[in-house]
Amino acid sequence: xxxxxxxxxxxxxxxxxxxxxxxxxxxxxxxxxxxxxxxxxxxxxxxxxxxxxxxxxxxxxxxxxxxxxxxxxxxxxxxxxxxxxxxxxxxxxxxxxxxxxxxxxxxxxxxxxxxxxxxxxxxxxxxxxxxxxxxxxxxxxxxxxxxxxxxxxxxxxxxxxxxxxxxxxxxxxxxxxxxxxxxxxxxxxxxxxxxxxxxxxxxxxxxxxxxxxxxxxxxxxxxxxxxxxxxxxxxxxxxxxxxxxxxxxxxxxxxxxxxxxxxxxxxxxxxxxxxxxxxxxxxxxxxxxxxxxxxxxxxxxxxxxxxxxxxxxxxxxxxxxxxxxxxxxxxxxxxxxxxxxxxxxxxxxxxxxxxxxxxxxxxxxxxxxxxxxxxxxxxxxxxxxxxxxxxxxxxxxxxxxxxxxxxxxxxxxxxxxxxxxxxxxxxxxxxxxxxxxxxxxxxxxxxxxxxxxxxxxxxxxxxxxxxxxxxxxxxxxxxxxxxxxxxxxxxxxxxxxxxxxxxxxxxxxxxxxxxxxxxxxxxxxxxxxxxxxxxxxxxxxxxxxxxxxxxxxxxxxxxxxxxxxxxxxxxxxxxxxxxxxxxxxxxxxxxxxxxxxxxxxxxxxxxxxxxxxxxxxxxxxxxxxxxxxxxxxxxxxxxxxxxxxxxxxxxxxxxxxxxxxxxxxxxxxxxxxxxxxxxxxxxxxxxxxxxxxxxxxxxxxxxxxxxxxxxxxxxxxxxxxxxxxxxxxxxxxxxxxxxxxxxxxxxxxxxxxxxxxxxxxxxxxxxxxxxxxxxxxxxxxxxxxxxxxxxxxxxxxxxxxxxxxxxxxxxxxxxxxxxxxxxxxxxxxxxxxxxxxxxxxxxxxxxxxxxxxxxxxxxxxxxxxxxxxxxxxxxxxxxxxxxxxxxxxxxxxxxxxxxxxxxxxxxxxxxxxxxxxxxxxxxxxxxxxxxxxxxxxxxxxxxxxxxxxxxxxxxxxxxxxxxxxxxxxxxxxxxxxxxxxxxxxxxxxxxxxxxxxxxxxxxxxxxxxxxxxxxxxxxxxxxxxxxxxxxxxxxxxxxxxxxxxxxxxxxxxxxxxxxxxxxxxxxxxxxxxxxxxxxxxxxxxxxxxxxxxxxxxxxxxxxxxxxxxxxxxxxxxxxxxxxxxxxxxxxxxxxxxxxxxxxxxxxxxxxxxxxxxxxxxxxxxxxxxxxxxxxxxxxxxxxxxxxxxxxxxxxxxxxxxxxxxxxxxxxxxxxxxxxxxxxxxxxxxxxxxxxxxxxxxxxxxxxxxxxxxxxxxxxxxxxxxxxxxxxxxxxxxxxxxxxxxxxxxxxxxxxxxxxxxxxxxxxxxxxxxxxxxxxxxxxxxxx
Length: 1327
What we know:
about 15% strand, DNA (Cytosine-5)-methyltransferase 3C (Dnmt3c), SAM-dependent_MTases_sf, Hepadnavirus_pol/RT
């Protein structure tokens, strides 16, 4: 077996090394001296028990649920101690909990819940996988509910979960994560070298704390795959020589680890064999297909590729036998070979089972995580001091830092089994903003402590800080001795000359130890010896691992030195002096006085010029000649000049190695804290403090890495940093770790609900306690020598500036709005850049950082598209970057941002959101070579014709539901507009986004700002959610969409839905049967004006971010009528199985609304009725008018045919068209079906008679129709045909014509509404 070679692309801008830097090895997993209770559901062949027996001292109780007879035979043979309980669906969770309690009443043993719920309903191989709504998929949900009840009934605290399934849709996985209170990660057995097995694993492992590979002792490696965080095993490869293959061998590419054997699949359940998945039809290699057919299609087609088969010496190939598959999954050979179990059953069990190596790896991490929790609650100790009392409260709790897990997207509708089920769940679902806020674990502990301690918390805080202050006084001599032992540059940083105080680092570390801070040994080393500026950085406690390798492949020290010397010589030879050099020099003087810098120094001998001094100070001799330096530059802000240093171009940042991501608290954290306060209690107040000097309060490890050059008219000045510097990547990581320590201490010892964004510390708490948290936090920092800017402190108030945002907390809501002063500053920077046509990368970086509040204030994506050119300039990725000059995209972005700063609206977030939620579905389609495609379809051809796409037939549709009312609309995008979006991706994006925009414009009439929108195109979904994409035209459209959303202060929740579950799918194709079944009302959207605006928006960024908004909202769609008729539909009338349809509350008589023909049609039919004693009513006319219009869309040739031979009558002209023929056929079909249904569901008699009469007229032969009817009747029919055409044109426009024509091509079997005989419906009385 050989070691995995880890090589990933470098992203530092320097040549990648041949291998990653050697990481410091951690502790590998050792067998635990613990007894474990294993509770295993869907146990299969007992893989969980097999693994666990090798990792712990013993399984003291093994409870199993399994119903498969073959699995039971294997289980009995390999794990006879297992207590089998059959089908968990028939078991009692309370009885299970009582059994565990009887076995371990003290709750000291480990409890591991393992499960592998059935996966067929989640498999992506199936095009129609129903997910959790399927018969097998529902068992996963049932397991979550069952095991939660078991867990609630046992006294154990050290509990672990290990649940496995296939890689499914992310929203579905997040749904199960919430049910299990776990997080899902992806791992793949391909890391072991021979076979693929990608699987999701749900665990409660705190990935911010578990960082070490349990096998190698190296750091865990992460990446992103299929929207999931993927954990790499990074262990030794399994070799072919490790397998006993009885004379057979693996394919050479597999044996050499260049390829992998495909994931095992189950054999076909019957002799008919297994059909190929639809997506593989026509794509299977002929030779592979022949092998598959010859084997009776026993397994999936890919199991017959050369790489998947075993090879004999004579060249023949065979499917791996069960004993080979066992070894490929790292099971003992013959493990499943049990009397009574057939070979086919063994194949099936192995395909459904775990890869032992992959599962063992995850289980080791789960066990390690379980050991981090104390076994039982401690015995309370007698009270002594306030600090000891607080520590007693903290003892049974697990210390938390960071978010705890990766944030999951809120899901309103879990996987549904049908379109109707998805519709029912959507209209009944609550908006995510209506759900209680979820605080990070550390903040939740503060809230819990406040509830436990109650009103005495303010007094306890004061007493605790008093006690700490006394400790500081008592340890003054020890602290001074410690300070004198420090390296000189560290000692200078830790002495505050302004306060004549040594920073109380030993006391801080002692308190953090009492509070049990995670990662304290590494923080102790850095606080006492200084923080690294280059090289590998220590991990942050509670920070989540990076999902990319951005900081894992650094430049070597030798490469860095060469690059820095080249950079330094070039900067010195340029002799460029910053216009603000004098202001920066004043700041450097101040830093020298405070001991945070030393110098000035003489130039090293390799410099092309000599240095100058400051205030006639003597030049010092450098300790070494090979120094690395960075150069100062200024960033001009509205109220000050900020000095920065370019550590990116100097090469310092390229040397950094970091494996995690610093955790920051944004405005949402503090909003959630305010919203979490109990309704009716004290109103929360917010306060803020700013750490004085920020980075500059903490020392660096090696000052030789931190030389600084300021170019002046007299020459360069060379200084050396002793403290962390602004502009260095390492400073971000290092300072946030130190700030986390301050925050953690305050949370644990003072129960202060506190967060920080870099050096800004912010607290939110009810008014009765908030003043004590503010004052005692300030006093504690003063005692520790870590002073805040007390003159700029923001004491508790209901209105406060928080991270550049005005935050106003009231009793019922939180109001967020941009701070006017900050907006003005940003506008001045933008205006200056536009006037000077220049924006440096540093200035772009700072401006982007300031403007992030645009998105955070709105909790939306407004401004994201405009920020991207800023980030591109900031990171040196901007095209045409000539000495900071503006390019086209950047200039346009700045203008857009200027408009956004003028338009941004306050955001109001009620504590209790009582308003109803608007539900919106949208979809689109287009036709290529006669094939209909949805933008979300995987069958869209890759070969794309830009010059033809505007001619493709297309359509969009929207369905809107609000408070029992449902509306729909549809239309087509004109070719003149499509021409603006002719690339393949832009075309697909635009169709979906345009459909959403139509829905949004219609929803503006409704009295709610809660909008839940469903979209089935993944690319369009992510583009809408991010607010930008690479295509400039689409970016402009997205910016306009988000401006509309911001204008109405919407809380927009976007959610992906499968195409077959999208109720607007058929609407986009001008098919409205589903709409009639739910009593939906047609709404007219004035599309022509919208199309004109979008056409200009596509090519004019200034217009998109300027006048387009006013033009768009000036368009007035047709009013939405609120009938309150229970718009989910009358399922009793739908002709469907009531058991398969959602229950509906009917609040009034069901009224089917149809687009109505205008007066000419009614007059003609009235005259026809008078002459022939026919009883036509307006309801039937409306239905006929609706039907006729859609037929034109279905067959345009019949509506635009050339003049033909003269016929006997105008009615024959109607019959000769497809419309007339379909109308006659449709009436015939309805009459036949009406006669076949039970009497209580037949059409009301008046409607039946009317349709019979019309059918008889249309069914007359042409010669009889013309010869026998009187001239007046022919005149009436001729008038009718002409009037119908005129009326449709008047009533429906192009969209109406499409709708009118389309319905005739549909099978129409929906009966009209059933009403009591004495109830009048719209335009039709049945009394």
